[in-house]
Structures are given as structure tokens and as C-alpha cells.
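Notes from the 1:1 (GR / supervisor)

We went over the backlog. Supervisor wanted to see one worked example end to end before approving the batch request, so GR pasted a single chain during the call. The sequence is below; no edits were made to it. Supervisor asked that the structure be written out right there so they could see what the output format looks like.
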Amino acid sequence: MSSYLHQSDDDVLDSIERDMTCTYKQLGDIILCGDLNARSGSEPDFIQNDVYDTHLPIYNDYDCDTIQDVRHSYDSKVDVRGRQLLDLCISTKMRILNGRVLGDLYGKFTCHKPTGSSVVDYVIVSEALLPKILSFKISDFIPNFSDCHCKLSFGILATYSSHLSINKFKMNAFPGGYKWTKSSTSQFQDALCHPVCKSLLNNFMNHEYDNEDSERAVPDFLNIINVAATKANIFRHKSSKKRKPNCKWFDSDLGVKRKILVSKGELLSKFPYDPIVRGSYYKCYREYNKLRKYKMRTFKQSILNSLDNLRDSDPKQYWKLINSLKESTDDSKGKSVEPEVWFNHFFRFE
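Structure output shown during the call:
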């Protein structure tokens, strides 16, 4: 939805419908998801009783709405924007997953605010895609994820075929690293005397590598080094996930308060109509934000005071503190894009 917020002054739903009918519908099926700020209740998003009838004068290429499954919703209110969304679904043959698919058969609330809960976040797919939707889930409300919205997820049955060999794009994972300490030398020597390492070394020494087989010598020898390093506990496998560290001012008090807030948010998702649960959550939410702002303000003020005191008294510690405040320049993105994805992307431009 963010790509439509900076377009013309036209309504967002009008812009979406125009793009769908003029551009994307010719390219294939469509999936529309996000915060549409529309409350549609459980009103039908299709033409009811739309069946083929030889007695009705309709076009030969007219497609009836084959999906006649009703949907449910905890939110019974239908506003003007919700009516526009339903009209968009009917005119473009799109179907709402909320309250219709396994995993959310009752239409759980997707937005929680102090004034109440509502369903304003949707996943909408083309009618042809609806039989391929395996599941749809609205997660419990997590304050750390969003200020008022729940996470939406769905599974889709997809078929993939490619004329390109998968082996062509096979890539090996990055190896781990070696943590070398003062005692690592003796540990590594002892590991080389292990029967497994001895067997690998004997096989390596007795194997006659000719010119065609010489490229195997390097990985075989590297395998011996890795096995010995693993047994010596100096080899560390590269972790695929990196946990984002908390801010320096985020202490244990804030961590405990955040856990309490998350638990109250989950409770609000289960009991959205209970005023006591809602009041307890937003009271905790205000206390958490107040404590978070106080911790951040106190931390910044302590840094400023330390800089003022160290500037003349201890320049070395002053610049050390300055360097510690610099943001990390690590631009790594966790998981890289698969090579065949790159190939298919640029293959379209040929």
C-alpha cells in the first residue's frame, strides 16, 4: 500500500483498481494485502446467486462468480470505504481471505486501538487463486511488531518448473571461522592424533593425485583441517541468523516491562470485547512508553555529561566514547538472494 500513498490526489482504492484492470490483470493472478483502512463486515464480496442462465441475455464471454462461500467477521460494521472495497472485489473478481479460509474461519480482529478493535487489514486474491490458498492466519497482537496492527500470513499452493538445471545454481554455504587462543596449538595437535584424523591423513598421503584429480587434493586436505579443528573445539560454524542487539539504553527493567506488555497484547487478541483487558493493556502501554522515553533521555544526558567531563581531563577516553557511539556500518542482509532468482530477473530483459 505504501507505493500508492505518494501518487496523485485520487483515492487509493481507485488507483489500485485502475492499476489492476489496466496493467496487472493481463500479467496473471493478483494478491493484494495490507492495511486498507476499510471495514467491510461480513458483507459478500461477490454477486450472489450469479449462475449461468440461458434465459438471461448476457454476453457469451461473461464469467460468473463461481465462489459463493460466505465469510465471517468479528467486526460487524461496514463503513463507506468498506463499501468501496467490496465494489472493487466484485468488479475485479477478487476475494477476501479474512473469515473465509482455514486458520481464520471467524474473521478475527486485525487492529486494536483504545476506542475498540476492527478488521481493516486484508489479504485479497484473484478468484482463480482461492482454491490454491492453503491457510490464512491472523497472529496475536504483538506491540513490538506494530502499534495497533496484527501480522497476517497465508500459505499458497504453488507449482514451480524451470528448464534450467537446479545444479547449475547450487552454491555452498559460507564456512565457519577459527577461534585461536593460547591453548589452541596443543589442542589442535592432540586432535590430529585422533584415530579419525589419522585415518583421513593416511588416506590423503596414500592417494596418488594425478593432473586430472589434483583439484580434489585441496578440499580433501581442507576437510582434514576442519575435522581436527572441530574436535579441538576451535572451529565455529557460521550462524545464519543474527540477533539485532538492543539499544544501549534498553536495560533489564525495560525488558521485563516489554514482556508484560507483549503478554497483555496477546490477551487482548483473545478477549477483544473485555473492557478490563483492554484498559489493562493500554495502561501498561502508556507506562512502557513513558519508561522507555525516560531511559533514553537519561542515557543521552549521561553521555553528554561524560563528554563534557572527559574532553579536557581524559582525551583518550573522550574519543573512545565518541567511537563507541558510532553506528555500525554492517550492511549484511542475513540471507542472500538465490542465484536463480537473479537469473530469472535479468533474463526478462533480454
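Supervisor's comment: The beta strands are 31-35, 94-96, 111-113, 116-118, 121-126, 133-138, 152-156, 177-178, 235-236.
Batch request approved.
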